UniProtKB/TrEMBL annotation:
Protein name (Swiss-Prot/TrEMBL): PA domain-containing protein
InterPro entries: PA_dom_sf
Alphabetical list of SUPFAM superfamilies matching this protein: PA domain, Zn-dependent exopeptidases
Origin species: marine metagenome
């Protein structure tokens, strides 16, 4: 009898899952509804870094949408190894250039607030020969890295792979921080993770592609520049 009851319960669970799947399939195939939900998520909730107010709001919104669609849903808490959130990041170029570039911080960039000016150097593509060219000048300076424009998913994964190599070399060279030229045009910014995640201690930024090109043109024309960085970061480690 116990075995029969277990089978009945298992069949009930599977039937419920299949029923939920059928409901979700109908919703997903409704392009208008998907577009409407996505628009609300992007326009009214926005970016959702883990642990942020927007992140928590998006969870409640999604939970409510599943209930609205008649799909069984539950919320489950989990613990992260640490908390990192950018409140704001600003930069200013001075020297032979004087302008305010558009920037954002990489996730896990620096573990404390910063308001400091650094020498800005041309880091090329961030390869070994680029760091060899800079030599001891790299120590204590911010380097700006040139990137290819992103055109496909392969390029995205190459960005991840290249960043890990670049940042390892940057630590070895003793740089004060790394700035990546955005791989997207039209001043579009995005947020990758610093490759060392919670172990990262350096400020790392993405700079609008057009602004990054302007910096590199100047530096490659035998001019000099400094980068003032102001970062307001909220960090909380586990325990």
């Amino acid at each position: 009898m116990k075995r029969i009851l277990q089978l009945v319960l298992a069949m009930g669970v599977l039937f419920g899952q299949a029923y939920d799947y059928q409901k979700l399939s109908k919703i997903i195939q409704n392009d208008d509804q998907v577009a409407k939900d996505l628009a609300h998520l992007c326009d009214f909730i926005g970016g959702r870094p883990t642990g942020s107010e927007a992140n928590l709001a998006s969870i409640d919104w999604t939970y409510g949408k599943f209930q609205e669609y008649g799909v069984s849903v539950s919320k489950q808490a989990f613990e992260m190894p640490g908390f990192w959130l950018e409140r704001s990041s600003k930069a200013k170029i001075t020297g032979d250039l004087n302008f305010t570039p558009k920037v954002t911080a990489l996730s896990f960039s620096t573990r404390s607030n910063i308001a400091k000016k650094y020498p800005l150097l041309d880091g090329g593509r961030g390869e070994k020969q680029d760091f060899s060219r800079l030599g001891s000048r790299a120590g204590g300076a911010i380097i700006i890295i040139e990137t290819n424009e992103l055109v496909n998913i392969d390029g995205l994964f190459k960005e991840y792979s290249d960043a890990a190599k670049i940042e390892a070399l940057a630590y070895e060279a003793g740089v004060a921080g790394v700035v990546y030229m955005s791989s997207r045009p039209k001043k579009l910014l995005y947020r990758h993770n610093a490759s060392r995640a919670y172990e990262n201690t350096l400020p790392m930024l993405v700079m609008a592609r057009e602004d990054g090109k302007r910096c590199l043109r100047t530096l490659r024309n035998k001019k000099s520049g400094q980068l003032f960085i102001q970062m307001d970061i909220k960090v909380k480690n586990k325990g």
